[in-house]
Write a structure and sequence with these properties.
Blueprint lengths: L18 H15 L58 E5 L4 E5 L2 H11 L4 E11 L1 H9 L9 E10 L8 E7 L8 H15 L4 E5 L6 H13 L6 H17 L6 H12 L3 H14 L23
Parallel strand pairs: 5-6
Antiparallel strand pairs: 1-2, 3-4, 4-5
Helix pairs in contact: 2-5, 5-8, 6-8, 7-8
Length: about 300
């Protein structure tokens, strides 16, 4: 007989500015303060949110046409499962610069993770619904002139290509997004162990992330930063201007709302406020700027940049 669970009616812990959100923000602050540098000898312990360093993206990023597994890079990659294949959650196609255009997502959780990866300068490439299979089973099927069973091909929610400062090689990092309530389910644990095992065979690391990985306030901030980049056709052309703008923002003593500060600095360069907002978004995308995600980003709110570390 299934064990009954009690739930709190009217639980608001998932909402912004709630006590639950405050606890997640405290955890986020602790996470920021415990960054660790990448250790190639312990690559299996790589956790993206705890990864230390100050990466800055050179855009466009020079990437090989295929990864070590032989799967095509983001420019030509096709998601193994399209958005309509989702059985749970709100699916859809979302635009991503690092995915080379539209990419398929199967839930709101994956949408949150995508926006985080998009604004994380360690990440140079994003591929969603990435196929993973056992090469021995594939060769066994080929030798017998058979096709692999569909059930033998797994899909990893995200395959990220990382460039870590001081490390000369690319790191391929698979991420599985799963609701926190299901992470410890035995069937889910078996799947994640299988995912990790298949990926580690070609030295690809693996990590599980939940909705608690990205606090709601942080997600909203990423969405706004991404919105500031609307109509940006070539990030590379604005890369130098974004760097100069970021340096000026860190050096300024101007105070007031974000719009006021951006307007003051943009005017100093002879730029419009709209260009200032776009460069502000690009600055975060490239890693020149870091917002303090304990605070909600808004045009009428104070500018709260995190200190460089």
């Amino acid at each position: 007989m299934a064990e009954s669970k009690q739930i709190i009616v009217g639980d608001c812990s998932h909402l912004p500015f709630s006590r639950g959100e405050a606890a997640r923000l405290r955890a986020y602050r602790n996470e920021v303060e415990t960054k660790v540098l990448f250790d190639p000898s312990q690559a299996e312990k790589l956790f993206l949110r705890r990864l230390g360093g100050r990466p800055v993206l050179d855009w466009p990023v020079a990437l090989p046409p295929r990864d070590p597994r032989g799967v095509e890079g983001a420019e030509t990659f096709e998601c193994w499962k399209n958005a309509s294949a989702s059985k749970v959650g709100i699916a859809g196609s979302y635009f991503s610069f690092k995915a080379g255009g539209k990419t398929a997502l199967h839930s709101h959780l994956e949408a949150k993770l995508l926006r985080y990866f998009e604004m994380c300068p360690f990440v140079t490439e994003i591929r969603t619904q990435y196929p993973s299979w056992d090469r021995q089973k594939y060769l066994w099927s080929c030798e017998r002139g058979q096709r692999m069973r569909k059930s033998d091909v797994m899909t990893v929610d995200f395959m990220l290509t990382l460039q870590i400062p001081g490390y000369p090689f690319r790191v391929y990092h698979g991420v599985s997004g799963k609701p926190a309530a299901l992470v410890h389910d035995e069937a889910v644990l078996r799947r994640h162990r299988r995912e990790e095992g298949n990926l580690w065979k070609w030295r690809c690391t693996h990590e599980v992330m939940t909705e608690e990985t990205i606090p709601e306030t942080e997600f909203r901030n990423y969405r706004r930063l991404f919105a500031f980049m609307l109509h940006t056709e070539d990030i590379g052309k604005d890369a130098l201007a974004a760097k100069e703008f970021a340096c000026a923002l860190y050096a300024t003593n101007a105070s007031g709302s974000l719009e006021r500060v951006l307007g003051i600095i943009a005017k100093r360069f002879g730029w419009s406020l709209a260009r200032g907002y776009r460069l502000f978004g690009i600055g975060h995308f490239l890693g020149h700027l870091t917002w303090d995600h304990r605070y909600l980003l808004g045009r009428d709110r104070p500018m709260m940049l995190a200190r460089k570390y």
